[in-house]
Amino acid sequence: MTIRVIVADDQEIVRTGLVMILETQDDIEVVGQAADGRRAVELARRLKPDVCLLDIRMPGMNGIEATRELSSEVAVVVITTFDLDEYVYAALRAGARGFLLKDAGSALLAQAVRAAANGDALIAPNVTARLLRAFAGTADPVQPFEPLTDREEQIITTVARGRTNHEIADELHISVSTVKSHVASLMAKLGARNRVEIAMWAYETGRIRNA
After folding, report:
1. Residues 158/172, Cβ–Cβ less than 8 Å
2. pTM of the entire predicted model
3. CATH homologous superfamily of domain 3-133?
4. Fold of the CATH domain 138-204
5. 34, 32, 33, 26: which is closest to 1 by C-alpha?
6. Longest dimension (CA), the chain
7. pLDDT by residue (tens digit) across 39-96?
């Protein structure tokens, strides 16, 4: 199945580069481009892509605002030049399924798009642990709707370390479908919208200390 993507960045040369990288992938098709967040939202609602790749700093409606508008409708990956914790945190709280720096490289960019399309979340490795540790304990973590099972406790630590469903399945010697079921259960119990919020909860409750 081809993953349909919209790319939004106010710098034409950057936007063109991102499109060229994604178009080299056999399973990814760029179906729309935008120079600002408002246009990206309009295109997303009209074209219904699988993933939106949004820059943070754009005129008018920025990438965070656009993410907030779209995250319940389409998977969003945020990409930026600026490695600032407040940007990452705001993007994830807005519902982004991925966060990358523009120097991440073509392989990681394609991986983030695929992960988002598959319901996974990918954050640039150089910001993941630092970000989650920085915000651990900044808010009172929610109490799970039901106690977590032993297997869910295992799953949550692997999710918090950025593992994909396939990596978790290999590590725990279970099927991918079983991993997906456990992740869905965790989301329901924690009231989390995505895997990133599961990871945040793991850090906030002290389950992960040295990722």
Report:
1. yes
2. 0.70
3. Response regulator (3.40.50.2300)
4. Arc Repressor Mutant, subunit A (1.10.10)
5. 26
6. 50
7. 999 999 999 999 999 999 999 899 999 999 998 899 999 998 866 667 777 887 788 8
